[in-house]
Amino acid sequence: MFIGEVSKKTQLTVKTIRFYEEKGLIPVPLRQGKYRVYTDDHVEILKLISEAKTLGVTLSELNGLIKFKDSKANWSEISEFLVILKERLTEQINATAAKIAKIDSCISIINQQTPLDSPLNERVYDGQKVAITK
């Protein structure tokens, strides 16, 4: 298939596809005359790259990860990377949960020590001040 069809299937621009090719993220496609001919493997790798980017994976991480054997992606290495990525994201979730718990603790301490008439006990909802009662 030609690059326009790949672009439609992957929701990537032609410029982006060529950029990924230039960076070695996808194998260089064979040519039919002056046109590049992409395969379903190219489409799958491009979809993987798009999805990985939404998860915060950098192109340099992907560049070291996506290796080709006979123009095919090494999916077992990609799977191992995804397991590591999942662990990293889980650690980030746990760290964020710990920070939220600390914030909740601070709020609780402040609310216990703040006089009722303090501005800290007022919140603005829809443009009106509302007193927070203990």
Quick tags:
about 130 residues; alpha+beta; two-stranded antiparallel sheet; 6 strands
Question: Can you tell me about this structure?
Answer:
The protein is an alpha+beta fold. The chain contains 5 helices and 6 strands. It has helices at residues 3-10, 14-22, 40-54, 59-65, 75-113; strands at 30-32, 35-37, 68-69, 72-73, 122-125, 128-131. It is elongated, with a radius of gyration of 25 Å. The mean pLDDT is 85.
Short description:
This protein is an alpha+beta fold and 134 residues long. 58% of the residues lie in helices and 13% in strands.
What is the element layout, followed by pairings?
Blueprint: H1 3-10, H2 14-22, E1 30-32, E2 35-37, H3 40-54, H4 59-65, E3 68-69, E4 72-73, H5 75-113, E5 122-125, E6 128-131
Antiparallel strand pairs: 1-2, 3-4, 5-6
Secondary structure tally, helices? 5
Number of strands: 6
Secondary-structure content class: alpha+beta
Instruction: Report the β-strand fraction as a percent range.
Output: 5-15%
Strand order of the largest sheet: 1-2
Arithmetic mean pLDDT: 85
Helix content: 55-70%
First-last Cα distance? 67 Å
